[in-house]
Amino acid sequence: MSRFNSYKRTNIILQHLKMSNHTDAAAEVLLERKGCAGVITLNRPRFLNTLTLGMIRQIYAQLKKWEQDPKTFLIIIKGAGEKAFCAGGDIRALSEARNTNQKMLQDLFREEYILNNAIDSCQKPYIALIHGITMGGGVGVSVHGQFRVATEKSVFAMPETAIGLFPDVGGGYFLPRLQGKLGYFLALTGFRLKGRDVYTAGIATHFVDFEKLGMLEEDLLALKSPSKENIADVLETYHAKSKTDQDKPFILEEHMDKINSWFSANTVEQIVDNLQQDGSSFALEQLKVIKKMSPTSLKITLRQLMEGSSKTLPEVLIMEYRLSQACMKGHDFHEGVRAGILLYDSAFLSHFMTC
């Protein structure tokens, strides 16, 4: 029996690893006309709805069609399952393409950034239901839209400095425009915002209880030839009714003055000095985090945000495309992905071998 159980566990592990390298392009993203809206569903729940090049291409093409369709009055994007809206891009595929498919590295970043800009300039109201994990590329297909709805289960982060990259998908545009130096702090540390804090920080435009999210979508789809104002009214009604964590202070509220001071420095070295000199437990905690990040990524990210603070989104995306290609040729990103995959696989194997 013990030998049988061991064999069974090994098969489960092998099936998982096989599935993690397999994607069904036809099912990765669902594009549907429902009521007055076009609905995009990121459909890779087993992989936290991470984006592939095929998904990006399908979404962009359909977005452009709906934008010109007089019967489509709004566009909704959401993630399948309850864990994630979208946890980012498929970084494993990116790293593997380094030695086998250089064109794919160029195409993915270019077409993803084109999609980000298309969302920003979309002529139809664009509503992202950012329930669950929303990171990296998931931020790119949501934050540039007109409306972003968070729930108590939303988790926002831009963790790219941990894998030798930088907070792209327009991060150089929206992050420096958050209150004070909050965006600089989020970019350099990868700090996670959860629940209502995603709204308070300005990432989301509305906050709705998860149990009401389905009803909100139904009410939006039932609108008859709605104007932008009609859509905003529905969102505001649901937002106003949500009482979850309404009186809870922003998680970084007590630290914002210091964050604004520490991260006003023009160099990473000065930010590190500021944190060391402060010496508080919060400062030392952030210092510990920063020291684990790619030094190159930290410097690129700080300069990216400083430059992006005065650029338009298209200008930022052009800058970020050039940066992305430089990072793909470097060492830090591929080593960061390798280390991350080892951690993931080790945790997964450990879990199943002890079941």
UniProtKB/TrEMBL annotation:
InterPro entries named in the record: ClpP/crotonase-like_dom_sf, ECH_dom, HIBYL-CoA-H
Primary location recorded for the protein, binned into one broad class: mitochondrion
GO biological process: L-valine catabolic process
Pathway named in the protein's UniProt entry: Amino-acid degradation; L-valine degradation
Top-level lineage group: Eukaryota
A Pfam family per the record: ECH_2
Keyword Iron belongs to the record: no
GO cellular component term, pick one: mitochondrion
UniProt keyword Hydrolase, yes or no: yes
Keywords annotated in UniProt: Branched-chain amino acid catabolism, Hydrolase, Mitochondrion
Occurrences of domain Enoyl-CoA hydratase/isomerase (ranges): 38-341
EC number(s) on file: 3.1.2.4
Family statement drawn from the similarity comment of this UniProt entry: Belongs to the enoyl-CoA hydratase/isomerase family.
Protein name: 3-hydroxyisobutyryl-CoA hydrolase
Organism: Bos indicus x Bos taurus
